[in-house]
Structures are given as C-alpha cells and as structure tokens.
Design a protein that fits this description.
820 residues, mainly beta
Amino acid sequence: MKKLLLFVLISLGIVSAKAQFPMMGGAASGSKITGRITASVIDSLNKQPIAYATVSLQNPKTNKVVSGAVSDEKGKVVLQNITPGEYNVLIGFIGYENKKVHVKTTPEKPDHNMGEVLLSGTAAQLAEVKIEGRKNLVENKIDRLVYNAEADATNAGGDATDVMRKVPMLSVDADGNVQLKGSSVKVLINGKPSGTMANSVADALKMLPADQIKSVEVITSPSAKYDAEGTGGIINIITKKSNAQGVSGNVNATVGTRQNTGSFNLTAKTGRLSANTALGTMFAFPQSSRVVIYNRTQIPDPFLPGNTITSEVNQDGTSDWSRQMYNGSAGLDYDFNAYNNLSTTAKYNWFYNGGPGKGHLLANGISSQTQSKTDMSNGNLDWNVDYRKTSKKAGEEFSVSGQLSSGKNTNEFVNTYFVPNLPQSSVASANVGRNKEYTLQSDYTYPFGKGLILEAGAKGIFRNIQSKFAQNVAQDFDYEQNVAAAYSTISFNLSKKMTFKGGLRAEYTAIDFLDANAQHNRNDYLNLFPSAVIAHNFSPMSSIKLSYNRRVQRPSLSYLNPFLNETNQYSVFQGNPYLNPELSNNVELGYSTFFKKGAMLNASVFYRRTQGIIEQFNLTYPNDPTKILTTFRNVGTSDSYGFNLFGSYNLLPKWTLMGNLSMNSYELRNPVLNVKTATRYNYTAFVRSATAFKKGWNLEFFGVGISPKYTFQGKSGAMYFYGSALKKSIFNNKGSLGINMLNPFNRDLHIEMINNSTDSYQTQNIYYPLRSFGINFTYNFGKLKFSEKTKIKNDDLKQGDQQGGGMGGGGQMGGFGQGK
C-alpha cells in the first residue's frame, strides 16, 4: 500500500508539472520541420578542443545572422531550430583565424553534423601553443572542482581507488573508502548511482580501471536538485566513452606485479542512432598480507563482587587473497528529432575477493594453529531508460527517467582450528544478500531570461534488501525502504557580478523490516533540505562563494545487515537494523583565483554540525566474554570545522607543481551518555610534479600523507605512500606506452587501528603489500567523447565504511577479520 501511495504522489507531481508548463504536452501540431547543425571546434595544431568559440549562422543571400551559439568546454556547439536551407557558418575565437563553412540542410535531412572544424592560430597564438598545449589537470567551476584523470600519467594500470587518492579535497582510508571534508560522500558514475555502491564503495571502486576514468567532479555544495545524501558532498566519476560518427573506441591493457587490467570500449554512430558497449576485467595476483590482532575484554566476576575477569587473545595471521573483476555495458541512444531523445543503458559488474589464510592463535594461554578459506563476491545489474524533451527556448528541458538495480552478494568462510591434544574443529558460515531497487524520476528546467532559471522535479525510490543466513533460516532479514522526494530551485543574478541559487527538497522515507524475532518494525519520517549559494565574481579570473545546505546519510546494507559474521571467532561483526539516519547542516566559504602562467589557488573553510553520527562500536560479546562484538550505533552529535587549500603552478612552461592540504576537526558529544570527546584534527596532504618533454614523453611523481583518523572509541593510524610514472605517446598520439610504480622502496603499507570501549580493548596491525610495478598500453581509435543523458541519481544511502575490498579484506586477512 505504501509503494502505491508513493507512486501516486510522484505521478501527481509529474502531471501537475506538465499542466503548469504547456511545453511538456509536446510540440504544436502542424509545426514546420526544423533541425540542428552541430560541430566540434578544434585547434589545428594540438588537436585540443576550443571552448567559448563564437559560432554564427548567416543567410548567404542577405548576410543576416539568423542563429548563434558558443562552443562548450569540449569544443562542441549545437545550433537548434534551424529551418532547412543553405547557410554560411562563421567560426571565430581570439588568437585564431576566422573560418567560414557553407552548409545545406533539407526537410528530408534537417540535421547536419560538420564534424571537426579546425581553426589555425595566428602567429602569436602558434607561438603560445608550442609551449603550452596541455589540458589542465584541475579545473574550478562555480559548484565543483574537476580533476581530469585522463591527463594524469600516474593513473595508468591502477583502479578508481588509486585515482581518488589524487583528487583534490578527497581522502581515502586503508580500505579504499572516500571522504570529503572528513565526512562520507556519495559516489556516482556518469551522474548515476550503481547498485554495487550500495554494498561497498571500496569494492565498487576496485571494479573500475583507472584507464576508463576521464575526470572526477567534486561537488562540495549540491543544490536541492540532488538527492540529499552525503554529508560531505557528492563525487561524480566521468568515464571515457565515445559519441562520434562511424565507429570509434579504445583498448587498454596493464600488466604488473600487483594487478592486471584490460578494457575495451566501442561506439557505432550513424545519423540519429548510436550504440555503445564496454568490457573490462581485472585480476590481482595473490600476495601475502599479514594482520596482527590483540583483544582484551573485562567483565564483572559473578562470584567475587568488585573483581573482574580478564580475557586476552593474540592472533597473528597471513593470507594470500586475490581479487577478480569483470564488467560489461551496452547502450542505445536515439534522437527522434531536434527536441526528443530516448536512451537506454544496461551495466553488469561482478567482483570477487578472497583466498586461503593461516595463523597462530593464543587465547588465554591456549595455543593453536588456524587455517581459513574465505570467499566474498558481489554482482549487480543496473538498467536505465531516459526520455528527454527540449524546445525552441534555449535551456528549457523536460525529462522522465526510470532505473532498475538488482544485486547479489555472498560471504562464505571456513575456519579450521588445530589445538594440541584436542580433536580438529571447524567453524563455517554463509550469507547471501540481495538488493532490488526501482526508481522513477522527472525533472523540468525553465529559463525565464536575464539569468532567472527555475528547476522542479519529483522522484520515487523503492528498495528491498534481503539477507539469508545459512546457519539459521529463522533469522533471515527482510528490509524495505521507500523514498518519495520533490524539489524546486531558482537561480538569478543579484547584480552583474553576483548570482544566487537556492532551493528546497522534501523527502519522505518509509521503512518496514522484519527482525530476528519475526516482528515488523516501522520507521517513517519526513525531512526538509534547504540549500543556497551566493557567488561573486571579482573578475573573470577570481571569485568567492558562500553556501549552505542540509544533508542526510541513510545507512546501507553493510550497516544494517544483522548477519553475525564469525570469520574471526574472537572478533565478530554484526550490522544494526535499528540505525537512524545522520542529519547535517553545512556552511562553506570558498575563494578561487587564477594567475598568469597557469597558476591557480582554491581555498575554502567550512563548518558542519551532524546529529546521529553513525560509527563503528565495540563491546564485549554478550554470550561469550572472550569475544569482541563490532557493530554500528548512532553515537552522538558532532561539530566539525576545517579548511581545504589547493594550488598549482607552472614552474616552467611544461613543468607543473601542485599541492592540496585538507584539515578537519573531530569532536563528539552525547548528553544522554554524558560523553564528550577531546577535539582532534585530521589532515590529508597531496603533492605532485608533472613534466612534459619533447616527442610525447611525460614524467610524473606524487606523494600522499593521511593523518590518524579519530573515532568515538579510537583511531586508525597514519598512511604515507608515493608513486611515479613515465609515459610515451605512440602511433601519432593515438596510443601510449608507459611504466608506473607505487611505493618502490617499501613493500608494505603498515596501518594500526585502536578501539577502546568501557569493557574491551583491541589493536589491529595490518601489513598490506602495496609496492607494485606495471607496464601499461593504450590505443585509441576514433574520438573519445560521450554524452551521458540519464537523469537517475540515487544519492541517499550511507555507504559501508568498513568493507574490506580496498585492502584485500583489511582485517579479514588470515582468518582474523571482521568482514560483513
């Protein structure tokens, strides 16, 4: 009944919007056939796109200009609503020779693609291009920072986790989980969620080869148009795809000591129809990882009041875990005419993480040897269908989108114990989780003119999560979460140099789940999420902005699943289905400026208050005082402040230096429990040097430092790693060959984790083999430009921070982990 009610509310919102905006009813009957003229403006020397080039459409008989536009950042320009006929297309940009091209369209073929239009630089411009001609690694926009991963040679051969570690403002922990300003973020791929992300961000990032990533967008102040999830903000990963006439694509292959990857992308486009497909695979060789764990628990002595019973357990284990991944996608895109487009995409991802382990166990003076075998996998299918309608009014757009996500993840283990003078014993368990998600969304944008733009939309998400426990069918977990949302935003110019954008989003959440006692539990709540940003441009090169927004973090399956994971019999893990969402209020002040010679400075300060912080929580296991139980709880309220400073400078025309420093405070209080932590500070530092030489050679170095991360009960240790890459362009810049290395002088990345509760104390020392060397080959055929048109962006779930995919299982190695 709730699903039906939510669906009706969303449908009424869409119908109401169509009634208010006549454009949505379709084009007027009897209207003349019009088409569009498209082109890509390219520098003739370095083959780079030219942004903001002026394109005018001229009547050759009267010399009157009938239409015009400006090229975007990819050099692409679209002239809409063109009546069939003959025209002169005039193209110009400062520093380039003007160009005139004659085109002709007919009622039978109203659309005309001019392809690449090459502009030749003037004498002064040619001299400048000779020494520059390189795409900026980082770009700053009004609401986001863009890291152009394809311009970074050090990414060759890695995966998305390696890329995220080098993105300004982001920090990545030992398990591969991403944070922004010290808080969780929502990670999208091409503006869309992935069902795999609902299980584990770390595992999902491991599925995406770095060579497939074009850029990463860091959206620090999302408007009300976005789902309200992500207290820190939103990360959008843009992948390399193609949108060129004919057949185009690319292949990538990397062979290395840590992992081997391969990917293939292909696009075929003719006229109004395009089809694309992509395949990717990864295999990581098993490498010996070591985990050392110490547990101490204390409970009251039932026979001697005032005394305590102490239990101590030491574990030292190694594992030879491997990782495997493959993914595939296929999509179709069709333009019915200049105003109506339909597209669909299906993607499938599969990831495996596991292997054998062995170790030594000393529990309260009893010594034993252990052998383990762990297998974890997850697979997910995402299918999107999107319809988009535009009109003769530039900027007006209506869209309806649907998405289906279906996923399955498994967690199986067998631990065997060998105790002197005692029979061999074993512990085994299995958990199968399934996730289904259905989404319907509609958005409308209307520009009134003079900078005034209205956006409105509605959305419904229907989720079902199931977890089946092999050892006890009666404890199966069935969780439903349905979300209905509506939003509206407005933006306008306060003055010639000052703009404002504000909005309000309403989200109604209905939760119903069956607990271990077969009892229904309900939790319905309504939240309002306002957002506002004011930006002032001092000049075309300098700006400042002040923003406010309210955000939410709902717990995902890895937080909720009550399956008792006993991969490590003395450190067991269990999710908490009774968690409430986190709610945060965020204020940020940012300043950006560009200098001569490509120098850039971006600085921001922020304040955030978060209620209902969800954190890992340790306690002595209720039924066995020798065990430590790890779960999650809403532990209190946090006030956090901090800053981010990013800068880049071209020391020489082809030598770029850049650095990023982020800091945030951590302080937690809970009046009910009379708890208040000390104020701690977390920081992340990143430095990079990139040099381009003659004949297509590139050399890059980078280093990353992450301070200890503090939590309610403890901290995780600092991390430091570094790497370099050398790449050579081949085949007339259509391909590249390179070598890369990571931590060449240190085999292991050592991370210490400490958790201290009122009745338990635990330390984990992880020695993860990070040193690696690799050889990468890339070949591109055709053009690598693609337009993602889907509108589905499910941004509302808090991702699993403790999943072990990023570190080969993290604490799960050697059979002593806390997997989920």
